[in-house]
Amino acid sequence: MGRHALKAVLAALLLALPALAQDRKKAQEEVLRTDIHGDNALLREDGETKTMLFTGEVRLKRGDQEMTAARIMAWYRGEAVEEVYAEGNVTFKQGDRKLRAERLYFNLAKDRAIIVDLRARGTGKDVQQGFNVTASEARLTLGRLEMDDVRMSTCSYGVPHFHFGVGRATLIGEEPRPRKPGEPDPWPFGGWKVKAEGVTPEVIGIPFFFLPSLTLGEWVREFPLRSVAGGRSTRFGPYVYSDWGVHLKRDVEGHDPRTWADIQWELDWREKRGGAGGLDFIYEWEGYQGVIDTYYLHDLGRDTDVPFEAKFAPLEREERGRARLFHRHDVDPHWRYEIEASYVSDRDLIEEFFEKEFKEGKEQETAAYVRWVDGSMGGFLLERHRLNDFQTQNEYLPKLDFLLLQEPVAESPIGDLLVTERFDAGRIRRRHDEGLHVESFSSWRLDSLTEAALPVDLRYLQVSPFGQYRLTAYEHDLDLATEARSMWTAGGRAVTQIHGTWPGMTWDLTGLRGLRGVSEFEARYARVLHTDVHAAELYPFEEVDQLDEFDEVAFEWRWRFLTRGQDGKPFEFIDGWVGAEVYPDPLRDTTGPRVTNNQYPFNWITLNPDPDTGLYPDRHGSNLHYGISFHPRNFFKVSGGGEYNPETPREEVRELLLSVQPAGGVSASMMHTFVRGITDAYTIQLALDVTEKWAF
Q1: pLDDT for the residue 640
Q2: What per-residue confidence (pLDDT) applies to 179?
Q3: Do 72 and 42 contact (CB within 8 A), yes or no?
Q4: What are phi and psi of 209, to 5 degrees?
Q5: Cβ density class 251-272: b for 16+ within 10 Å, e for less
Q6: Tens of pLDDT along 214-229?
Q7: 8-state DSSP, 14
Q8: What is the mean pLDDT of residues 267-280?
Q9: Which helix (H) or strand (E) holds 431?
């Protein structure tokens, strides 16, 4: 059913109802105050019992609570309100919770309430967006809330185009807590259990499955099993993966207990590879955070008939695994230190069993790091050593880095002169994979970069010329001689924007409520004017050592269209961009991979080889890169992007994504990925979140 949707709806309703049950000693004072208004009022007294009737657009206000109705009647015994009855377009508001009904009755003395034709709206801590609920009747007694003919939806339309239908929903209190003397408490319980009977999700009036009964409770939150996945593959045969975990909490004065750590363990089984598991410890509290991540596998061996498995060398050991430690401490707003260590048993483990990390994650490293930041200044000290002998990696023994970011140093009639300074120094040692039998290479290196920029605002056009001087000194170049390189770079950027507003443009289906467009055009030019040492003479530790002469012009067009949500706040409705580069010297700059091409101050659009030949032909321009995203705050969004080669001419990359979320916990997506010469794939995904932990 959506993530916690049913629980959050009922819990929000419970928060609204007790707000009517005020302290009995103060109730009469509140009703008789000028906070209640009506066209007519009638008072009747019968011994100790008093009855007050208000009619004609009655409004009752108390703090941040407000109730309106055509008629409101209140019964008093002594000075305490015992019963309240309201009818005729009844509304109750408090914060972001809103309740409507045709008739509402509340007996404060017996903690009972009846609501007819309920319509409520609110938010919950477990629901990331507003939700709506309707019911033909709702009944509240001590520890039990029942609703009949329930409809729940995140759609704001009067007749929602998607919703969950529930024949009867019941919230039952558990774990009773003591009630305070003299105070009404319609929910004196610490826990809860939800039972939903006859659950039917519907989209545009069409039900797409039916659950006869569903019972949830606090045990769902605390049960250690978090996920189970299984299947069959050519690599592993039948397999089952499971994730387990428990939260560790600590008491916080004045607050509910807070989770400070999470213990997780994995239990996996693969028919061809055997059993595996891991234990993780994740913690975070008041400036500290970290993780201890472990995994162990007794490997039964690879299936060499599977092409993916055949590319690996024979297993050197059956006992395989990993262990990683990361700890961070924010000492104060200026200082932070980190410690990290990562051990992996062999070179192939991550690629075989942690595919996403292998493709997208950072390299395994063992390091200590101290950082200092103060305004526009900052610096760090890094010590890094290689732990896994099959990695090719730079060791820093150590490295010191300092940065001063765009500090104004002089004023002029047209703008301030801004200076950026970066300095790093350290001893670097490149250690190669032991299997390559290549000797290590080390050198002290000092690198200093000074940039001066002069941003000028010409009203309709903003320009910013800049110049850079870079000095890099080496203890050893490739000939083991001392070397110093000077590099001069210059260029600039120009930006202009066009705005437009169309307040009358609306489209209810997509949530369009007026439109404001911002279109931005940017042109950049950068050129290495001079360098006295070519990259081929230096050992290539990092990108800075591979910088060389380069020349480019870049263009980019970005646009954003904004509209307003139901809360009146603007959000991006459509956005997109188009970008490309031009190379004045194609024979020098485009016939091979160039590190300079994607390093500041250049534009980071990398040239790739021809997908058919693998060669780098000389070309005057890059591919035309583009992307667009259409994301109304509704039940769907569409995005796409790609690359077009104007030299060929043909499309080389295309990515399209359509995602639909007809309800809070139901989603579907379809993705098309095309990369010429590599892949042309379609992916379809369906997901259903039944509870906080259980999903399909």
Answers
A1: 95
A2: 61
A3: no
A4: -170, 170
A5: eeeeeeeeeeeebbbbebbbeb
A6: 444 455 556 788 888 8
A7: H
A8: 95
A9: strand 415-431
DSSP 493-542: EEEEEEEEEEEEEEEGGGTEEEEEEEEEEEEEEEEEEEESS-GGGS--SS
Q: How many CB atoms lie within 10 A of CB 443?
A: 21
In this predicted structure, what is the pLDDT of residue 36? 61
Could you tell me the two tokens for 275?
């059993």
For 299-414, strand residue ranges (E) read 319-330, 335-344, 366-374, 377-385, 393-412
In this prediction the pTM is 0.65
Token pair 């996945």 in the structure block, residue: 229
Residue-level pLDDT at 101: 85
Question: How much is the average pLDDT of 633-646?
Answer: 88
Amino acid in the structure at residue 310: A
Question: Quick check: 386 pLDDT over 80?
Answer: yes
The tokens of 635 are what?
């039940």
CA–CA dist 242, 41 (Å, integer) = 65
What's the sign of the alpha-carbon dihedral 437, 438, 444, 445? negative
At position 2, the amino acid (one-letter code) is G
Q: What pLDDT score was predicted for residue 343? A: 97
The residues, ordered by sequence, that sit 6+ positions from 378 with a Cβ below 8 Å of its Cβ are 371, 372, 402, 403, 405
Q: How many other CB atoms are found less than 10 A from the CB of residue 61?
A: 16
535: helix, strand or coil: helix
Q: How far apart, in Å, are the Cα atoms of 182 and each of 22, 29, 228, 326, 536?
A: 11, 17, 49, 53, 86
